[in-house]
Amino acid sequence: MDRKRSVGRAVTLLAVLGLTGTLVGVPIVAAERDDEAGAQLEWGECPDDVPDTPAPLQCATVPVPLDYSDPGGERIDIMISRLASQNPDKRRGVLLLNPGGPGGTGLDQPQLLTTQGIPASVLDSYDLIGMDTRGVGHSAPVSCGFTNDQPYFGNIPPYAVDDEAVAGQAKIAKAVAEQCAASDDAGRLAHLSTANMARDLDRIRAALGEDKASFLGYSYGSGLGAAYASMFPETSDRVVLDSNIGDTHLDHEGMRRYGSGMEETFPAFAKWVAARHDSYGLGRTPKEVRQTYFTLAEQLDEKPVDGINGAIFRLATFASLYKESMYGLMAQTWQSLRDSPGAAPSGDLPGKNQSTGGELSPNDNAWSVFLAVTCNDVEWPEDVRTYQRAVAEDRERHPLYGAAAANVLPCAYWQLGPSEPPVEINDTGPANVLVVQNQRDPVTPLRGGELVNEKFGERSRLVSVDGSGHGVYVLDDNPCALNVTTNFLVDGTMPKKDVRCQATR
């Protein structure tokens, strides 16, 4: 096996993560209906970076207020895409889409869902509407100026082996928060929030000439959809929240659930690897595979190999749990690291002078949006000791990854927000929310779906799937979840009670 090629793939794997209503106290400025707005949208070709297969999309821009407390002030353009229904007799409206993040581009999401096999009945029933939410890609993009040579690894902080490591990460987080504030020349970062993105959704609905809009969101998109259904219960139609973060926003406790998510999902990977011990030699039982993980992580903490240290190894393994299709690559990477005789100097670690200069990171926009939205939505703890205690607790409680998920984000030092309270889930309104959730998910564990379902009360039903990985509807192959969700979107059939879908294999 080509060891360097396999280890290099582990770094590539990190890209998977992008590294990888009435509300009390919240001033809501609803989008007013403009009956001619849909006709005024100028549909045309999409940007070159948006795929034109299997069917070409059309794109348009929708102007929205930068600051909804000043609706007559500066405006920004939100770019949307459309895969139109080809069956006028069956078309019922529009389905707004969000892929997650926050910070993920969504202009190509109609294409992605089509290639993944979204049912024809859904394509007949809706125009699929993708978008780059505010700050992302083609929608008034923001930048903190992240470069390839700075010690920042992305949206999940690194695994901290002790209190000193937490303190070291706190210094990096503080510098990043200051960097973002200094880079915000256009004054846009302060206006990136889930509440404002939900308001944008309702503006898009109105611009499309629709009385109501349905919504399908994954991961962070579940939080955006929960906010949309809460702020605009009368104009939101059928809302599907897939792979849930647990609320309308991500906070420190939400991040800490990543630790429990890995604990719950790792056994599926360990069982898969153990069944292939003759190929990989990483353990004959899931227990032995788990021990191999700890052994490798500790060895890499002491002696990094080809730019991979213990923190990167843990992060790459966490990312590999998103889909079973990634298990083989991760197992090969474990093999390569176990068999490697050499160690790379610490200066070769990712994020430390890897590039030839300070060129902008390809993840700059995604990381910047993630931080702005996450830090603006809710207050985060500011005391380093709070994080040190949480890391120590989760290192024991969730030893696989808890000491990373509980570590310090730049939100502890954020200088721009929040400007309003986080959106509260509104349990008063139509029963129009379907919560879809794998029982084992590394980043959005089952508890997130349960929390959202509890908060919506009688407005929602939970579809829990005996499956592993991140993303259920269309992105996985469970026929029960597919049929329940499709029936809800197409016919409006809401289950009378929560549904448990059995495993398919």
Automatic annotation (TrEMBL):
Transmembrane segments: none
Top-level taxonomic group: Bacteria
Record flagged with keyword Hydrolase: yes
Residue span(s) of domain Peptidase S33 tripeptidyl aminopeptidase-like C-terminal: 401-501
Molecular-function GO term, any one: hydrolase activity
Signal among keywords: yes
Family according to the record: Belongs to the peptidase S33 family.
Protein name: Hydrolase
Native species: Saccharomonospora piscinae
Source organism phylogeny: Bacteria, Bacillati, Actinomycetota, Actinomycetes, Pseudonocardiales
